[in-house]
Design goal:
This protein is 34% helix and 21% strand. By secondary structure, the chain is of the alpha+beta class. Helix 1 runs antiparallel to helix 2 and helix 5 crosses helix 6. The longest helix is centred in the N-terminal third of the chain and has 32 residues. The structure holds dinuclear copper ion (CUA).
């Protein structure tokens, strides 16, 4: 985005940009045409049919069926076009392709931290490969923030008590601005970061160089699984225990005690760690201690990553 701002959308750099911009400008120009038409007709009529003499009386106006029909049918068609187009685009924007490369995003007052599947971390900039779908799985350590990349046309709230996500498919290499667009305190307007879109080879090279000697999130999750003695109740090989096994748990639809089902996604697993009795899996007793509620967000992310890794 230019330093001086503009009334037009910034140059797009993601696969969904043409569709998104098409819809935006369709609404924009249709509104413009209707605005000019309505205001123009108003000014024209006010001038042509103005009262010229004090005794002048307007003639009786009879209704015109054609005009009445048109003023109902045309707006209805326009609204249906915008709805259909908008709904399709919305679904495409919200459902990440299953093979998307996943990056964990942690927001806090007032910075962005990014963690990659190999354990590499970066602050204030996120490296992504070009021509490949990338999904950001986001959470906040404190208040509500919002992740906004104008060039990719993606914006999503980042919340302290659940995961949200956005995905994009960058089509051009380069640097793009990330803004926080939810007022989050004193340094809100400085809560900036950059997306650095690189060719796959450069990205892989950067990823290797940035990998710390630390464990990957999955390895850290496995370590926590033992340290926090999750293994006392939850097996990883499918064998029954006091609690449900973690093997093949992720992504499944799970029946609950007291009826209903839930899909075991990131948010369900997170909730089950922080508030174990909220949704109890069918056939189990609500006896998991609530003490895991004090685990830091990085540990929750790692445990989720570990449970996810057992889904295959
Ligand atoms: Cu974070 Cu505004």
């Amino acid at each position: 985005m230019g330093e001086n701002g503009t009334v037009w959308l910034p140059e797009g750099a993601s696969a969904l940009t043409p569709e998104w911009d098409g819809l935006f400008y369709f609404v924009y120009y249709v509104s413009l045409i209707i605005f000019v038409g309505v205001v123009g007709a108003m000014i024209y009529f006010a001038f042509v049919y103005r009262r010229r003499k004090p005794e002048e009386r307007p003639a009786f106006v009879k209704d015109n069926k054609m005009i009445e029909m048109a003023s109902v049918v045309i707006p209805t068609i326009l609204v249906l076009i915008v709805f259909t187009w908008g709904f399709k685009t919305y679904v495409r924007m919200n459902v990440a392709p299953p093979d998307a490369y996943q990056i964990q995003v942690r927001a806090q007052q007032w910075s962005w931290t990014f963690e990659y599947p190999n354990g590499a971390q970066s602050v204030g900039e996120v490296h992504v490969p070009v021509d490949r779908p990338v999904q950001m799985v986001m959470s906040s350590a404190d208040v509500i923030h919002s992740f906004f990349v104008p060039a990719f046309r993606v914006k999503m709230d980042v919340l302290p008590n659940r995961y949200t996500s956005v995905w994009f498919h960058a089509t051009k290499t380069g640097e793009y601005q990330i803004f926080c667009t939810e007022y989050c305190g004193t340094a809100h307007s400085n809560m900036l970061a950059k997306v650095i879109v690189e060719p796959e080879a450069d990205f892989q090279k950067w990823l290797q160089e940035s990998q710390s000697t630390d464990l990957t999130p999955v390895e850290r999750g496995e370590q926590l699984y033992k340290q926090q003695t999750c293994n006392a109740c939850h097996s990883t090989d499918g064998s029954p225990g006091v609690g449900p096994t973690f093997k093949g748990l992720f992504g499944k639809e799970r029946p609950l005690e007291g009826g209903g089902t839930v899909v075991a996604d990131e948010n369900y697993i997170r909730e089950s760690i922080l508030d174990p009795t909220a949704k109890v899996a069918q056939g189990f007793n609500p006896i998991m201690p609530a003490s895991f509620g004090s685990l830091p967000p990085e540990d929750i992310d790692a445990l989720v990553a570990f449970i996810k890794s057992l889904s295959e």
